[in-house]
Amino acid sequence: MDGRTVHLLDLPDEILLIILKKLDSVDVLYSLLNVNKRLDQMARSVNNTKFLNFSINNVQLNRFCCEILSQIHQNIVSLTLEIFSMKRILLACEYPNLTAIVLNNFLPDILLQYLTDTIEMEDVDVIMSMINKELGGWPVLKGSDWDESTFDFDRLMLKLSQYNNYIFYVVKTDVDEKNSSVRSIHYTLLIDKLDLRETVRTTVGNLSNTISFDSSNYIRRLYLLANISVTDADSVIVTAPKLLHGIASIIDRQSPRTMQNYMIWRFMMDQAKHMPKRFRNILQEYTRVFSGTDTEESRTITCANYVNTMMNLPVTKLYIEEYFHKDARKETTEMINNIRNTFITMVNQSTWMDSKSKIIAIKKARAIKAKLGYPNYLESDDMRKLDKDYAEYNFNLSYMPNVLSVMQLHSKASLQMLRYPIDSEEWSDILPTTVNAIHRLLGNEILFPAAILQTPVFDKDAPKYLNYGGIGFFMGHEIAHGFGDEGKEYDMNGNKVSWWTKATVNAFDIRKKCFIEQYNNYPLTQVNHSINGEQTLDENIADDAALRQAFLAYQQWAKTHKNVDKKLPGLTKYSTEQMFFLSFGHTWCTKMTDVAVYTYLLLDKHSPAQFRINGPTSNFVEFNRVFGCKAGQGNSRVKKCNIW
Fold first, then answer.
1. Considering 478, 491, 539, 565, which one is annotated as catalytic?
2. Whose CA, among 34, 46, 101, 591, lies 20 to 30 Å from 640?
3. Residues 120, 491, 538, 543: which is the catalytic one?
4. For the segment 256-301, what is each residue's pLDDT rounded down to a tens digit?
5. Domains of the chain, with CATH numbers?
């Protein structure tokens, strides 16, 4: 060593380490690794390789990916990457201790593409592996390599059911229709929107005598997957047995290849929303044909909806804490009671229902259980029930395996309900985050989720004429469903018992013809079609009753709360009663594509939105009075249809 030059290797370790710490770790590794044993040890030290910032050129990148990373990958905790180097560095080796990645110079859309491309290709591999190993393969892909002698319809049905994926028939646990305090097995067709009211009650042991093909073994094996042993004596409610037999006959006539291709295709269409874009494009084209929608919803919305559906109660808890005020429950409870009392008055005043049926109808109306917002226990800070309900939800970092796992958990939970007692506080058939409401005939319940108790149909601080015209209509609609063509078959306890007298049934049948004729004559010029008055009958009668209930209930409230409701700025020319009807009409502002309207007319039991306004208002004399109309003028009918 002379006075002018200091050789790096001549420095003691302590000094050399201080110098290296002041240098960029990537530069140190590139320059010193594989020079000699002493420098290798220092360059590879944990402190020098924990945090690496890769802002390097292609020559350096090649050496790192081919030589250096494999020697230090176990030490790396954090990587700072740029767009051109990220893929090569991440694929160069595994990083077992990596906990953070910092991305420089990434635009959001480029980052999303990188992340989704990687995730989605993994999803394809997972699904295809499952199809080949568990479901027997997909003949359309395997071609002549697929052996039809391996086809086992019962096994494939069972396996798909295990993933909560029903193709032809649905087996589910639900409230027993004859005894709403217990549950039974329900066996039905998977046909969208079809009105299937014919049911036959049998047992697992006698099932083959009811539907002429033996499904008892399938049901036993399915429930056994959820650790539930089914006995010959367990009740089965079979819906539309003749249709079930007809579909079974069609299935029997198909070749194994046709059945395997069809069933796997159905499964893949259900999973397409989780798959890469080329798969989603196929689903989108299918959707476009039936709805006319050309745009795909964002991945963010798709994923959020999926989490909401599959893990709804935790999502609901977050939702109500953020968006739902507790006072809303108090106010909507008061509204429900007012509208219920109005309906009871309407029953008493009806001229077609005999006294015996009226007495039972009033008892049933008073017994209706209203569930508002969400299950009560979600208000509590005690998380034990949620923790218990979701104890088996264990996730890893791969998306598709998580999806498949959750599907199995949902199937298992549904089947296990067979041996659980009925909880009067539980929510079923509708999620609290759904913008809708339902009447559960089995149980005599009406449910109004937190998500519908929001603007524009409800606001706890809004004038009552807006709330009664909005959510009040929906409340009346769901109450009325307990007293129509279907509701007359279920008693006050939610058991399937016909409670109308023959005279009342005959009188109802005469009156309902008016509604059928009225709606049959509504033309939908958008698609040059008319409404099917038979198909939409029950909903049309409920709409008609709902508007009357909500308006009369508001009038009763206004009598005892004079001058409480104030007019709104810019709308002072309208009376409070007129504002009620404007609120009602505003609820149904809708725009649909031609294809969506046509599909809606074919399949839906509701009338299109404009006729859910025109129909009830045209029959209501109070609407005429409020707006100064005469019968036969404008929308007002001369021959008004009326049940309640």
1. 478
2. 591
3. 543
4. 999 999 999 999 999 988 888 888 888 888 888 877 777 778 878 8
5. 8-106 (no CATH), 311-375+427-627 (3.40.390.10)
